[in-house]
Amino acid sequence: MGTFANIDPFVEEYVAGKLGLSVEPVSTQVIPRDRHAMFFATLGVIASSIERLATEVRHLQRTEVLEAEEFFSPGQKGSSAMPHKRNPVLTENLTGLARMVRGYVTPAMENVALWHERDISHSSVERYIGPDATITLDFALARLTGVMDKLVVYPERMLKNLNKMGGLVHSQRVLLALTQAGVSREDAYRLVQRNAMKVWDSDGALSLLELLKADPEVTLSDAELEDKFDLGYHLKHVDTIFARVFGAA
User: Is-contact 28 3, C-beta < 8 A?
Assistant: First the structure.
């Protein structure tokens, strides 16, 4: 990028209109590198978002979780030593690529301060980080798209994992319902926690719902308690959220 000084007005208008560029209002021999630093910082944020999704997939693919996993084609090898393994190699790769893109942010920040705002110490850096950061991020975005397009999801396993907890995930709704029924928050918390700890100690063998029903201090009816254990409450806005993100179908 350079200034538009001493160039044909027609060329200036074309560049501004077609490429979305404009005149640099304050420029010496070089354009201030804070603009470039912001560009690379934005690339770093995008890379971090990629890693956030990649890390979540890696967690969901863990053997003891296995709620989702990367597509594994027939005959593909996950581990050279353990044939049963299906390693999340693509998302592990994305995690590493994100680190590389973020690594280019610091040199871009270092480029902002120039001697007398005119030296070209930045140029040797930009020749490296410019191509590497953009090409790496482009590849990472394409790879992430492929991972998400082919992602294998196991809703039955999700439900099974939730059920392992004996209904503990619903404790907040019960707590709020008790307070709305006139129980002080301190007492409501004590009642729910007392029963929840029994479920923890039983390793999920006991049911929080049944323990609450049997607790004489819990003033909610069985029907009211069962309503607070309905998973549908937490899923009722899923379609709205998807429409908000991806647009109405």
Answer: no
